[in-house]
Amino acid sequence: MALSKVWVHAEATENGVAPITLEMLAKAREIADVVEVFVGGDGAAVAATVGAHGATKVHATGDLSGKLQGVHVAGALAAAIEGGEAPDLIMLGTTQDGRDIGARLSVKLDKPVLTNNTEIEVGDGIVVSTQIFGGTQIVKTKFAAGSPAIALFRPKSFVAEESGGGAAEVAALAVPDAGAAGAAKLVNRHIEETSGPKLDEAAVVVAGGRGLTEAAKFEMIEELAKLLKGAPGASRAIVDAGWVPYSYQVGQTGKVVKPTVYIAAGISGATQHMVGMKGSKNIIAINKDPEAPIFGIADLGIVGDVHKVLPQLIEALKAR
Amino acid sequence: MNIVVCVKQIPDPADPGALDADHTLKRDGKLILDESDSYGVEMALQLVDKAGSGEVTLVSMAPNDEVSGLRTALAMGAAKAVLVSDDALKGAGALDTAKVLAAAIKKVEGADLILAATESSDGYTGTVPEQIAAVLDLPSITFAKSVEIADGTVKVQRQTEAGYDECESPLPAVVSVTAGVVEPRYPSFKGIMAAKSKPVETVKVADLGIDGAIVGWSGAGQEIIDVAAAPAREAGEVFEDDGTAAEKIVGFLDGLKVL
Ligand SMILES: Cc1cc2nc3c(=O)[nH]c(=O)nc-3n(C[C@H](O)[C@H](O)[C@H](O)COP(=O)(O)OP(=O)(O)OC[C@H]3O[C@@H](n4cnc5c(N)ncnc54)[C@H](O)[C@@H]3O)c2cc1C
Ligand SMILES: Cc1cc2nc3c(=O)[nH]c(=O)nc-3n(C[C@H](O)[C@H](O)[C@H](O)COP(=O)(O)OP(=O)(O)OC[C@H]3O[C@@H](n4cnc5c(N)ncnc54)[C@H](O)[C@@H]3O)c2cc1C
User: Fold this and answer.
1) What is the complex's ipTM, to 2 decimals?
2) What percent of the residues of chain A are helix, what percent strand, and what percent coil, each to the nearest 5?
3) Which class for A164: exposed (0-12), middle (13-18), buried (19 or more C-beta within 10 A)?
4) Cα(B60)–Cα(B200) distance, rounded to whole angstroms?
5) Using a 6 Å cutoff on CB, does residue B124 contact ligand 2?
6) I need a surface site. Which of B148, B183, B201, B223 has the fewest CB within 10 A?
7) A83: which DSSP letter?
8) To test ligand 1's pocket by mutation, which of A200, A212, A248, A253 has the most ligand atoms within 8 angstroms of CB?
9) Helices assigned H by DSSP within B147-216
10) In the predicted model, what is the mean pLDDT of residues A229-238?
11) What is the pLDDT of residues B163-194, one digit of tens each?
12) What per-residue confidence (pLDDT) applies to B218?
């Protein structure tokens, strides 16, 4: 059984459409006859890309600059749904804006929002899967509140795939006045400079944790990442300690990565870290504690001191 | 400046988590203050300090009249707490939780700002703060990595994928804070002693004007149909470094053709 219509949240970024959107579109095509997207912003800017990934229509609010997405996009969706356009399912990413929109919409529609999902099946109803206890158990939950169902998905749960479709048709999504609830403003955006491949797209990720013992030692991680044409990553412990920005964080509250190789140096392997990197094809762990949980999922484990192993590894790679 | 902080009391994350027969998280042991919420408590204490007047009130929803976590936050310096504890809430989803917390927040007079964490450590749906804002029809800013208040406006640096957004909102407003916004203080001995006599008002859903039949299992609108072990990832080889670790890693990378 397939759903008749699914709406996917299209997240626009500085350089196009966020990967999570395209991942969800691939899944949406599998489970629904009609796949459309909605965007808090300019529809024309995303129409070609989402069309190439199977969406036939873009419901676009138009310019929302200066406004926060959550309350306004949710208000617009609720109005469209009340107006009779209801899809069977609304898919959003577990991202900052995805969570805000999903949460506001759930109150508007008085329906639950199911979060952190990694899979969805349609059979006798809509059933989503979420991983709990650090990804060791999978819980399946069925929507029991009537359509539309609202679900948030973790990045990298599905594989994006082009459908060969042409540009999606753009339709206006009216944004009702949100009143006092709409009073928060976005004043200015700050984009951090990055170089090299993006953390969640790199084929190699070299991540460092508290075992590096001090901020300056993170340079070894940066250098190694560069030599391997990969991206540097981090555990939350050293993000919270201020050694590296949040954009480096891998895990439950950071990025989900699935590179060909993930190197964890001085990272213990807390469940919240592992949910963000367990899907890596190959994992190399360097830790001085033979009991560190990270060894439980490593393909190659080195019980050793990062201050010895990393410099040697850097030398060996430079010598090639 | 009167600030309400939502604080969740959760099973100790150091203990292995477990589910009850009805698939809800086991919460029958002692519950503690969610570390994620210690940041909100600290932020609130600092903002009230800066304003020079006002107080911090805690609201929490937890089973079995649990107050251990609230006492920790009171020991940090919060003035009082409202606890909603009711068997009718078993099985509550995030939306139910938000409805209940919103009603409890309404009981606190003159709240200028409501703080919560971006996500809890045990359920981590990350939707409750924004849902509370929606129920109360208030503006909200989520993922705050810095919070300042001036002239009735809250200014927030909101964390984004690419950096951060400068946002602001008139008060009252709901703000969710990330871990690391501030360094939570340790309760002092004096604080711990004082906390014992600080007022904690315990209420039932009916006291909040909420029908017990629309929250909890009956209201959740979701049904857990299966819980199963995830396919485990096999551990590979583990070597003790004898000076050849770098060589082994290079060999492994060579085999994968990533060099
Ligand atoms: C709600 C919530 C969300 C969270 N989200 C995330 C998240 O998204 N990402 C994340 O990473 N964490 C997250 N955490 C935190 C997580 O629980 C851990 O605290 C964190 O991952 C630990 O980081 P770490 O491994 O760097 O530090 P530690 O756990 O302190 O581990 C350091 C490791 O380094 C090793 N070591 C020390 N010295 C050396 C040496 N010289 N050579 C080699 N090894 C050495 C030690 O043996 C140890 O295993 C979250 C926690 C909560 C409660
Ligand atoms: C593994 C797991 C997955 C779940 N998935 C879902 C789901 O997909 N959808 C759903 O509707 N429910 C879900 N639930 C149920 C949900 O966790 C509970 O309804 C919970 O009461 C609120 O959600 P949260 O802890 O995820 O809140 P979050 O939104 O993650 O919490 C953010 C902040 O809100 C405040 N807050 C949240 N709860 C309380 C409280 N009880 N008292 C005081 N402050 C609080 C705190 O400041 C907290 O840090 C899940 C539960 C578990 C254990």
Assistant:
1) 0.93
2) 30, 30, 40
3) exposed
4) 10
5) yes
6) B183
7) I
8) A253
9) 189-195
10) 96
11) 899 999 999 999 999 987 899 999 999 999 99
12) 65
